[in-house]
Amino acid sequence: MTDIGHNSEGAKMKEFNLDLKALKSCLPAMSNEESRYFLCGVHIFERGVTMIYEATNGHILVRVESDLQNEEFDYTGIDIIVPAFIVRHLCKAAFLKPFGMEGDFIPCHVDATRINIEMLDGLINVKLVDGTFPDCSHVIPKTSDVTFNKININGKYMEALAKSIAVFSGSPLLALQFTGEKYGSPILIKNDIFKNWLGVLMPATLFDAE
Description:
Number of helices: 4
Low-confidence stretches: 1-10, 204-210
Shape: globular
């Protein structure tokens, strides 16, 4: 990220573009459980020149690889959790319109504890979620050919995943691929056209059921 100066406590602030489509895609998977406060938001972290957005409530996981790539930004070391309340606001057109914000991204500045979201007439300053987001990589199944003879699926979790991919793809109808490693393991859900999005339907015990 680009060094843009210091905050009031003297810490360096960095800049990058917040990907609204990726943020909105993660919204259906955020947790509302206050006892697991570190899941109540969207985790944003860097992977080389790419920013990854993810959210989980312990039952489903959504992970999106941002399409926004800008050589002027150095994403090294970015690892933040944007709190759920500001994610919900940023996902509402009615909230953004009065600020003149339209398009797929919003400039923002971050340090270790806060995010400043840049609007036309100033900054919205928000405290980031404390704590460490769990490493979700271990619950993402490797792609394999598995035939499920019977799957008991909670409809509300599938509906949340459907909302996520619809936001990301812009289409309500997609052919989704379901794969898993064995019966009772997490189920990987993806689409071959929109490769930057993936969803996982997990046994609730992986993150302690809500």
